[in-house]
Amino acid sequence: SPPGLSLGVEYWRLRGSEASARPRAIRELQALERAYPNNPFLLQALARLLFAADRDNEALAALQRVGRIQGMQSLAAQSEWNYLVSQPADARSVARLAQFIARYPTWTRIDDVRALHAEHQRKMANPAWRSGREGLRLLDAGRNAEAERAFRHALRGFPGEADFIGGLGMALMRQGQRAQALALFGKAARA
Questions:
Q1: What is the Cα–Cα distance from 12 to 26, expressed in whole angstroms?
Q2: How far is CA 1 from its chain centroid?
Q3: Are 50 and 30 in contact (CB under 8 A)?
Q4: pLDDT tens digit sequence for 46-78
């Protein structure tokens, strides 16, 4: 391991960009964090690697620790927002956005956060949207015929939603309906 905080953070941040080295890089950054607690740049690097490793809850917790450091609230809010804005509307995103609003009520882009929160709430209140989210879950579980029905229902309410169009294509492909699936993949790419 490289000596010291700055060199260590930079080294493990770079090593963690390789998927095969990411678990070790995360462990090493966590060890550095124990030696140099509450360093915002170390926590920021750790959060990025945790997001890349699909360990979102841990990454968000690291960013929230950054936000509790004097003078670092804006940095933490921006990093957390960059993640939240990329998430689909589901119950988890609605809750996370509400928590963000409560945690950073004076952040410069809080109106954008409130608007996204309202949009996600509207979508989650719509049965067609929830059907599409269920279709994605069913597709992941290999329940293709059920996923197809859910996506067809979802697309009546959200005909241009690329995830639902592509999901229907995948469900059909898995059921041997190749021509229809390929047409839907093209439509999803254009959506």
A1: 8
A2: 30
A3: no
A4: 999 999 999 999 999 999 999 999 999 999 999
Per-residue pLDDT at 1:
67
Beta strands in 11-170 (DSSP E): none
Q: What's the CA gap between 148 and 172, in Å, rounded?
A: 7
Rounded Cα–Cα distance for residues 191 and 186 (Å): 9
CA distance 55 to 88: 17
Lookup: tokens for 39: 């360093």
For residue 143, the tally of other CB atoms under 10 A from its CB is 16
Q: Count other C-beta atoms under 10 Å from residue 56's C-beta.
A: 15
Contacts of 53 (CB under 8 A, 6+ apart): 22, 23, 26
* CB burial string 88-106: b at 16+ within 10 A, e below: ebbeebbebbeebeeebee
Angstrom distances, CA of residue 162 to CA of 86, 96, 155, 179: 14, 23, 10, 18
Amino acid at 111: D
Q: Which residue has the tokens 């926590």?
A: 43
